[in-house]
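Protocol step 4 of 6: record predicted structures for both targets in the notebook before any analysis. Target 1:
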Amino acid sequence: MPPLELKHESVWWSTLTPVEQAELSRDDGLAPQPDVLVVGGGIIGLALAQALAAQKQSVQLIEQGTLGGGATAGSAGGVWPADQGPFHPPEFGPLALLSRDLWGRLSLKPDFNLDWRVNGFLTVNPERFQGDAPGFAAQAQELGYTVHAIDAEQVARLEPRLAPAPAGGIHCPSDAHLHPLKGAVSFARAARRGKARLAIQTKLLEIERVAGRVVSVRTSRGECRPRHLVMCTGHEAVLPAGVLRPVWGQLIATDPLPPLMKCTIGGPFLTLQLKTGEVVTGGTQAEGRNEAPDAELSAKLAEGARRLLPDVADLRFTRAWCGVRSATRDGLPIIDRAAGVENEWLAVGHHRNGLLLAPGTADLLARWMLTDEQPEELQGFGLQRLLG
């Protein structure tokens, strides 16, 4: 088979409307004394800006690039608590399930045009459930997830275009999907409606702390003196060395095709079809920072999708893109007050679950900041667990 000739372009940006693209590229300038300064304009920072603005806080967000242009643009769009949850510590579940439900409620609001679908997640890779679908499903159900073991005949009824799955599979019917950049646009729009200011092409340069408080933040566009500072950037330098590490992943996509599948499929790689018709596959994970797609990996991803959908003759991939995400060693994010600083907060290290956890992280952290009472759901996400 000849080498793939792929445009290095995310399917997410190209499927936004011109108005949506303009909202992510809009710059609102820098306010000198906001209630809260949010550093990082990915899905976590934008969700937090919206949550705080909804509580009548004056919010300034700064982003060194374009809104949603980092890990959010590299996301697969998954809201998959049941697929992800059994592989995480138990603290993950309450936050993940709360956040999924918040996404569902947000999808009903006029400002939130998300391409939201509760289309389920179907795993047909037996390595994922160690060849024991009933046992895996039972363990996941005990943790509170909606997970079912299904046999090969049920897999075929659910997704008739898939290659035969003699080992059956795992079905998570309540897992969902959305367009990650439409999610970013929606949070940005709602935050601005609440009078938040979102500044792009603005770098954090220096934080001045006095007697356990942030008193000033110097940016590439001037000084800001917020009452609270929240770090939502994925850059590892915001914490001591080794707490966060960069992990990159790659995705490829076809041009729009007729309907082929309903669920997100966990096969050799994850594969799904968007509402707009494109088939997307990938979800790889590798240590480091790789900003350019790897040609050999693209070919491997394409071959995996063709094995998964063997009777689809025109499964021709045309785009490839990467995303770099920050991860912790236990797979849980850090959602906490910064060590020894009364008015500095952290919402970092969400890795591949930033999109899933964004509304829950924002809702609970905003509540903590405004009441000074830590929500029970965030007690397992402290920084201290990673400093020992």
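Target 2:
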Amino acid sequence: MPIQESKVEIRKGLKDVHFDRTKTAFIDGRSGTLLYRGFSIHDLAEKSTFEETSYLLLYGSLPNRAELDKFDTELKSARELPDELLSIIHGIKHAHPMDVLRTTVSAMSSLDPDVLNMSRNAVLEKGVRLIASVPSIVAAHYRIRNGDPPIASNPTLSHAANFLSMLFGTDPHAEDSRLIDKDLILHAEHGVNASTFAARVAASTSADYYATITAAISVLKGTKHGGAAEGVITMTQAIGSEENASEYVEKVIANGGRIMGFGHPVYKAVDPRSLHLKAEAEKLAHRKNEPRWFSILQAVTETEALKKRAKLGINPNVDFWAGAIYSLLDIPDDLFVPLFAIGRMPGWTAHVLEQYSKRDILRPRLEYTGEHDLLYVPIEERG
């Protein structure tokens, strides 16, 4: 039977397809606007903390002092990893950090006697547990793979400062802690990106909470989603000095390659998150007395080829400057994506909560374009 002309509208990548409504985040890519629960990302980045932003995303409003103190106490009490999880990390210590994170989060379901409880209060409780535990998993694995014992959490430190403390075993510089705190805020939520969509698909099937987050982590590992910051550092090292930036960019573009950290599926204006990290990267580079990395990246943005692309809406995104910050803080390249996951935990959880409140399973369709009514030939008669 001949294939009839299609009357189905195909939206490749589901671009601009709205499958539901949300109160979690608003993004206007044309104006470069990002709101969490109605609050400007600029206000949150400059005035909030990751703990307060997490509360906002989970509960829908900014907390008062008593509410924030209670939430902070809950987070701090959930930081320590049980021996069963540490044993798993030891057993797979040579794996990629994202594989370790995915496996350990999945295993957490076996330690939760209430794993199948998907009520709002139960998921919020589990969400707090994972927001607190994910930094501990990343830090513990980093130390275990290097032959060092994990560092116990410090209840006097903030979420961001405690992560740096568990990672390096020293009290972090206050400015470094605040910088990671700001980075986590900027990564906390961003609408239905690929990993969030994966979490919502899983939630729509009534998969348990740990399964939804495992799905999100799995998708975040993909280089087209979470790997840009690591790619930016690789690019920066390849360029070597700001004088080589123009030649490098022109060569990559001429060969059909991609300049890492440029462009975004949503933003046609400047990614509002990148504005904060660019300013912080410059300050950090000078504070660390290592201005070369910032100078190389700045030179990349000023090449004629990329200036032309900027007129087409292709600008540096949040990952372009994040990679430089992580590198200047001596965070290993393969921890860049896990750090993204640490920040995105409250956003993923907020979306899972929204999806659990819906009745529909997410099941888009594919238009079939193959053959029809082929004759089945028994295997004995096939040539």
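Step 5 preliminary note on target 2. The two ends are 24 Å apart (CA to CA). The domain at 228-328 is CATH 1.10.230.10 (Cytochrome p450-Terp; domain 2).
Proceed to step 6 after PI sign-off.
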